[in-house]
Fold this protein.
Amino acid sequence: MFSPTPSFSVPSWLRLAIFLALVANLTSPLPAQAQADGAAAAGQAADAVRPELGKPLQAVQDLLKAGKGQDALTRLREVETVAPSASRSPYESYIIERLRGAAATLSGDAELAARAFDAVLASGRLPAGERTRVIEAVAGNFYRARNFQKAAEWYARYFKEGGTDTNTRQFWIQAMFQGGDFDGAARELLAEIQGTEKLGKAPPEDRLQFLAGIYQRKKDAAGYAAMVDKLIVYYPKKEYWAEAIYRATSRPGFPDRLSMDVGRLKLATGNLRTTVEYFEYAQMSLAAGFSLEANRFLEQGFASNLLGVGDEGERHRRLRALVRKNVEEDLKALPALKLEAAAGKDGNAMINVGYSVVLSGNHDEGLKLMERGLAQKTIKRPEDARLLYASALVFAGQRDKARAALTGVQGEGVGDLARLWALHASAR
């Protein structure tokens, strides 16, 4: 159902330009004291470059500012012929690697940029506040180069060293996913979603969809179902309900006796979509003695222009007339049925009559009768009865009480429907 895709934009060249400015301008490669005529004779300062390197390195920096990454790399290679690594001070090597990293980034050479900035980080000269920004930039280089495994490694390093940027975490998750680390992507994304929930906020819909898609790739049915459930609670759209209902009711062994319960859930969540569904559920309701419920199915079907039209339109109208006639008769008989059910000890009769009373609009009286029925020890299929009672509570607008009534409802099929009804009662 879900295709895992990023819920954020790929790093733009604006982010890259900002980073290049950061790298190029933090420290001039040619401190003022190193330019003094007597600098070489007096001994090179700890954080200075030799005058013969200062001018070409300044030229490299100017090329970077002009956006000429390849030219900057060429000039750096020329500098290195003049000053091989063995002859350079630690500070000079630090400056050269820093400029190389910026030039490689600008040129799109992620591997070279990573090696250069790894040397910069290892030098111990990079200010602590800049370490995570440099690590993030290296990860971004690999991400742009579509080397997602390397990108994921560097993003992991970013967070290990104290990085906290939310957008960067999203790139990390996507890099893990694109690199085939579904377990890692699912772990971090789930932590993100749970963190949002702990703050009392709804996780973004696209993040829930993303994780659902990852679970699909992992063939993790439980994880996938859990994300669909969250989508239903936070974003109760018809398509999410359709997915959840289909998955619950299409399992082998789902009991046929629960067909009406499925129809009620579909009606409540707006998932009756065909003429056949409306017509057949109305027929089943009428056959079960619930003319008021049959009328609900029919009236919604007619309002949706799925009934009463086409070749079967006349058939639909005949059933509508029959149901309306039964509704009139049942409403007249309902007072006597209530007294008869209340006076007896047949729990199932109390539940069925009580349900009709709820549908007639007398919620409190109908629910009380259903509760009396549930209390009878001889009631048949008590789990099914609790499910019907909970759906009546939802119909009556008592959602909190419905969730409580569904707690602990178990059994083949009925447990799945109870979970979905509980989600419907919890939907925001």
The chain is about 70% helix and 0% strand. Residues 262-426 form a domain with the Serine Threonine Protein Phosphatase 5, Tetratricopeptide repeat fold (CATH 1.25.40). The radius of gyration is 35 Å. Confidence is low (pLDDT under 50) at residues 6-15, 24-29, 32-45.
